[in-house]
Amino acid sequence: SREIAPLLATRRVKRTARHMVDTYLQLLSPWTDTGSGQGVFNMPHYPAAAERARHILHDYHNSSSDQPWVAINAGAGWPSKQWPAERFGRIAQEVFLRYGMRSLVFWAGEKEHGLAEEVVEHSAATAQVAPPTNLCELLEFIRRAALLLSSDTAALQIASAVGTPCVGLFGPTWADEVGPYGNRHVSIQSSVLPDARKSMRRSSNSSMNAIEISEVLRACGQLLTARPALVAAA
Questions:
Q1: Distance of alpha carbon 200 from alpha carbon 149, whole angstroms
Q2: DSSP 3-state assignment of 71?
Q3: Are strands 103-106 and 166-170 parallel, antiparallel or unpaired?
Q4: Which domains are seen in the chain, by residue range?
Q5: What's the CA gap between 95 and 118, in Å, rounded?
Q6: Nearest to residue 16, comparing CAs of 6, 7, 25?
Q7: Rounded to whole angstroms, what are the CA distances from 51 to 55, 113, 159?
Q8: pLDDT in tens for each of the 234 residues of the chain?
Q9: Which of 212, 220, 194, 213 is nearest to 79 (CA)?
């Protein structure tokens, strides 16, 4: 509580890091070296959730749960962080045509379920709405994906924590501060700033709309072609 906080928090730590992971690690700097980029994740495995993911992927790929696929998270906590659903669908279609990978679209809540359905409608039957998942199941699905495509959501942080390459789309928030951690990922920062007269949460999604399909597809291709199986086949 605030009454006893001064007794426990007795040393001020100055923030010098940019990314929030490094910022939180700096709280340990009085006792250990916490240079930027040194964060390491050790996410646990959830056997029951993993088994459900394997079972669903087995059915999705017609008897194989090992076939590479792409995870899409089309929702966002704020409307200002929302990339158009039809563009996610176009990406799913192009990824299938170029790399032979189908997509699963994840969601949480009725509103995001509607967005997921809209993505599928624009994917030319190359994407499918994922079943409802809890947090552990979402983690195990993302762990098995070849790539995650998402705007600024918790799914990006899960992907970076479990080692799945991801493409993150950023408009009103800053990728170098809250984007996926590490160098296995690509973050696309909109060149259009949000309306300074409004809070980031309440601004329009004009900055997200400025992110073009072509640059997102290029980022997806950069990560997918770096996968060992595709490199070997090239």
A1: 22
A2: strand
A3: unpaired
A4: 47-233 (3.40.50.2000)
A5: 17
A6: 25
A7: 6, 23, 19
A8: 567 777 777 777 777 776 677 776 677 766 777 766 666 778 899 999 999 999 999 988 875 667 899 999 999 988 889 999 999 999 999 999 999 999 999 999 999 999 999 999 999 999 999 999 999 999 999 999 999 999 999 999 999 999 999 999 998 888 887 888 777 899 999 988 776 555 566 667 788 999 999 999 999 999 999 876 554 443
A9: 194
CA 117 to chain centre: 19
CA dihedral (219, 159, 192, 22) positive or negative: negative
Could you tell me how far CA 152 lies from the centroid of its own chain?
A: 7
Order of strands across the sheet that contains 186-189 = 127-129, 103-106, 70-73, 147-151, 166-170, 186-189
Q: How far apart are CA 14 and CA 204, in angstroms?
A: 33
Paired tokens of 53: 């993911």
Count of positions (residues) in the chain: 234
Cβ proximity of 187 and 204 under 8 Å: no
Return the structure tokens found at 102: 């189908």
Q: Is 224 within 8 Å of 99 (Cβ atoms)?
A: yes
- 186 in helix, strand or coil? strand
Distance of alpha carbon 190 from alpha carbon 11, whole angstroms:
38
Extract the runs of DSSP E, i.e. beta strands, from the chain. 70-73, 103-106, 127-129, 147-151, 166-170, 186-189
> Among 211, 44, 70, 42, which residue's Cα sits nearest to residue 130?
70
